[in-house]
Amino acid sequence: MEKIDILKNLITYNPVNGKLRFGQLHDGGYVVVDGYEYDYFLGAGLNMEVSFEEEFSKKYPNVRGTGFDGQTGAKMPTGMEYMKKNIASESNFYTTNLKEYAKRYNNIFIKMDIEAAEWDWIPSFEDCFPRVKQIVFEAHGFFEPHYWSDKNFDEKILKGLEILNKTHYLVHVHANNWAPKTFKIGEHIYPNVLELTFIRKEDSEIDGLNTTDLPLPEIDYPNNMNDKEFDINFWPFNSK
After folding, report:
1. What is the CATH number of the domain that holds 100?
2. Which residues touch 163 (CB under 8 Å, ≥6 apart)?
3. Is residue 219 situated within a structural domain?
4. How far apart are the first and last CA of the chain?
5. Domain for residue 165, yes or no?
6. Is residue 215 one of the residues assigned to a domain?
7. What is the dihedral of CA 180, 229, 132, 82, to 10 degrees?
């Protein structure tokens, strides 16, 4: 498999609705598309950092939710509960693939940072993605495996992106500058870790491909405040 196959599945679109940020102005905050209503929230990989959940809860005070982390407890905002479980492809006493939560709802928001486990999780959740209105997650290891060696990692990433693209548009990309690894393809340098925002196709309007420079001023912020942002103003993230 060629790296270009992964890039073809990261083509970024321009949503008609505006964007805003939930969470702190560095690592832990994410850009979301505004203008939607939800019936449940699922957060994964909290690690005690719930600024995103707090701001989401303020904007949507009637939306209940659950936050997951298997290592550390987190104090969730009012209306949300904490579950001491990690996200995985199977559900058992220690892990969940979230399907038992998703099957009860039809307009879910998911926020996730699970350190590369997302690529094993996504196929297990495939039949539930039509229930997800918006998902933001930190996507790891695009061009080099994240933390461990896995000969099939490229294939896992490609499969995960293909699954997401069936039901959702990729509408925002931000490079995590904490991750130093990059990969050169042609004349461009591609970051290894990206924050991705997807919205459900069936209830979203798109105004063509993204032609806006990224990162967005006063919405995107560097994950590492002491280092500069990555320039990603080239295909497939910016098509101007």
Report:
1. 3.40.50
2. 122, 123, 126, 129
3. no
4. 27
5. yes
6. no
7. 70
